[in-house]
Predict the 3D structure of the following.
Amino acid sequence: MQKDPGSLARPWCDKGDYFSLTITFKGMPGPEWIPCLVAEHKIIGSKEARMILNSPTDFWPLKTNLAKISGSTTTIAILKGSFFKNDSDRSTPNILAEAERRGWSDPKPEAACVLRDIMTDNDIKKMGLSKVAVMHKPFGCHVLRLNREGHGNWLDSCYVDPADRQDVFPAGYGFAFEIIEY
C-alpha cells in the first residue's frame, strides 16, 4: 500500500471524545497562506474563507508581532461531533459551552491554515470525521473549516451562530479549540 505523501504519521492522540495534537505557527499573515496552501494542492473554497484570510483585523490583528508568533506551538483539541449523543445537541452554543467547560479557548485563525497544511483528507478520514470547524473568533458568522468532501483538500468556511440552538452540525464534524496549558 502506497503511503499518502502528504499524510502525517498520525500525530494526533485519540483521547476518547476528542483528539489532541500540537501545531507550530508560522506567523504568516492570511494573504501569504493562500499561495502556500494552493502550492500544496489545497483548495480555498469559499468567498468567506478568502475574506477571513485577507482580513487584517481578524486573521492576525495589525499590532501582532508575527516574528514572536513564528515557531510558537500550541495544543489543539478536536472535539468529535459524536460526543453529542443527540443531533439537536450539536449546536454552536452547546459546542462552545462544552469547550468552555473543559477550559479550551478559541484558537487563532492561523490554526486552520496550519491544520490544513499538515493534514490531508486521508488524515481527517482516519479520525472518522468529514469536516473540522476551527472555532476561532467568527468573521461575521463564519469560521474556517477543513473539508474532505468533494475533490481536493478544502479550506473553506462554515456558518456558526453562538446564539442559534436550531442550527446543528452533523455527527461527522469535529470542532477545533486551543487547549490552554497552565
Remarks:
- The beta strands are 13-14, 18-24, 42-44, 73-80, 104-105, 131-134, 142-147, 153-159, 173-179.
- Residues 1-7 have pLDDT under 50 and may be disordered.
